[in-house]
User: Fold this.
Amino acid sequence: MSKKKNSIWTFFASVKLALFVLFILAIASIIGTVIPQNSPVDVYVKQYGENMARLFQILDIPDMYNSWWFTTMLFLLALNLTVCTIERLPSVWRMVVLDNLKTDLGRLSKMQPNKQLITSKLPEEAAVQVRAGLHDKGWKSTEAARDGGILLFAQKAPWTRLGVYIVHTSILVIFAGAMIGSYFGYKGSVMIPETRSTDTIYEFGTRNPIKLGFEVFCNRFTLSHYPNGAPKEFRSDLVIVDDGGKEVARKSIIVNDPLSYKGHTFYQSSYQSYEKFLITLVNNETKNKELFLIEPGKQVQWDAEKVAFGIINRGMTDTPGKFTYKIWFSGGDTSEPFWIIEGDTTVINESGKAYTFSMKEFYATGLQVTKDPGVWCVYIGCGLMLFGLMIAFFFSHRRVWVYISRENDQTSVRVTGNTNKNKPAFDKNFETVSHTIEEKLT
Amino acid sequence: MTSSQLFGISTLGYLLASALYIATLLFKTKKSGVVASILTLLTFLVQTVGIGLRWYESYEMGMGHAPLSNMYESLVFFSWSIVIFYLLLELKFHNRIFGAFAIPFAFFSMAYASFAKGINQEISPLIPALQSNWLIVHVVTCFIGYAAFAVACGLGFMYLLKSASSDTSETGVISSLPKLSVLDDVIHKTMIFGFLWLSAGIITGAIWANSAWGTYWSWDPKETWSLITWFIYAATLHARFTRGWQGKRIAWLAIIGFVSVIFTYFGVNFLLSGLHSYGSS
Assistant:
């Protein structure tokens, strides 16, 4: 198969296609930001009418970023990038490894920038000076005898020609990472009430149960507020139980600081309250301890200690959203009600015994659970992209040739240079180099 | 002194500096240009102190976070980024005329922050999702990009103005604008710079999203619009590198790109709903 004749190949290698795909992707992406995504069908019917809603369903608009046609566009971009790279890389590589001492001398005199110096020194002597001049400015030169003269050549950063291909490859690496994630990973969520555990989570969208293969136990969930009542922190104390009931990991997670175990990551995402309370009671003398889940207005017995208690009232505190509770507590014949702020601990003296009484609201923590084995691939791609962009934008392949030859009893020193980008900067660079050479020659 | 007083002074400073830069362009008075530069630098220092003070004030109030957490603070920072980018540009290219097309952006951003309805100027506590070191990294990278694109857009206007003018006299206003080839080069370089930082901004956002929500990309409107903006600039760079687009076309693309930036920045917050909603007030 001849690449040149194959029109399909040329089509996929064209920059026109890249520009077209970028344009279409940009336009199509707008649709999904204007039309709400992943809403129930009736939302679309209500907002856009029955016919439009049906059309949306046909075109997968409600989940357009995962639709076959959007994925096809992304695939087309990836294919375009791949073919472009295969098409162009060999010739760019040839430029990187090119032996510039074989450059056609006729072309050198036509290249810009260009400067001819005349000296009375002999060519061999001049070459020494030129080499020193180049060296002074950080150019390491090689040389060869050409057509009775001497050609010196020096270059900087030839490999930076590959910068743009590093960027293109990085996009493919990111795509690969995303594909690994979507085939071998999942995203789901789970609600775990405090003091309970689970070994199953539910996939987003489908709500299919997924077995984790280990257990996640939520010891406590705490919610704290700023003085103005705005939520400050959601914190879940999680324990992972694996290997037949052993505790293998423990972490107190907050938003922005998840827990990872065996490729699964648990993120704090929401919570649920039940209008119930967790009471921890400790007999300070015997260290006898018990945990109770109670509802307001219902009396609870601790038979072992022969105490009874209950929540009988609720009051406001200075912090909005934070409440204080009136507790009735009896250890025998007498009882003295007291107030306690949710989340606090107090000591009660009742019928000659001291108890430590802790109270907190009972919550379930809402966790987002993801398994994404492709994320490292994506990050490598991102790093590669920034590295490639920097090379492609800020570095250039700069070359300098100096041809020394004898002409009419004088020595001609012709200095030429070439860069693949940012010519104005190179021209200045060239000016200083040729000036240094000139000084060395006089 | 409070940070809001310093921001008030900054707004006024940028207004005066804009006027001086424009006067320099119109009347070709060299001295006013020097005064404009000095005033811009001084105002920039006042604004920098203001940002630092607001940061300090948040600690005093017991919240302690970088002043980059809501629309007001981001507008102040946007203005700050434009000015520092512009000042470096002025230093590099030794041309004050650019200021007439750049500093007004900084002024409008400050004025909008101070006077627009529905913009909350209070220092408010950080919601749990924003409590991360990625906040500073993400916002700073994005806004360096935005600032560069704002300046590229201003230069795009300058280019179109110059190229549309038939006024070739030595004394006209247009003649004091830089040469078209110079403008074209500066627009291109500014866009390249912005593109690199926009890419970094999207990447830092993705990493942050992954550490907060477990997904580095969720096609949230803000993410999607930043990608659309990225596509526009990527297409522009390809058109230039491989198809040799220059001049007017690139100037137009600098303007179109910036419209997309503005939509990513404001439009998404006000017109579309999504995960980035904390930026809207």
Remarks:
- The longest strand of chain A covers residues 264-283.
- Residues 68-97 of chain A form the longest helix (30 residues).
- Chain A has a mean pLDDT of 90.
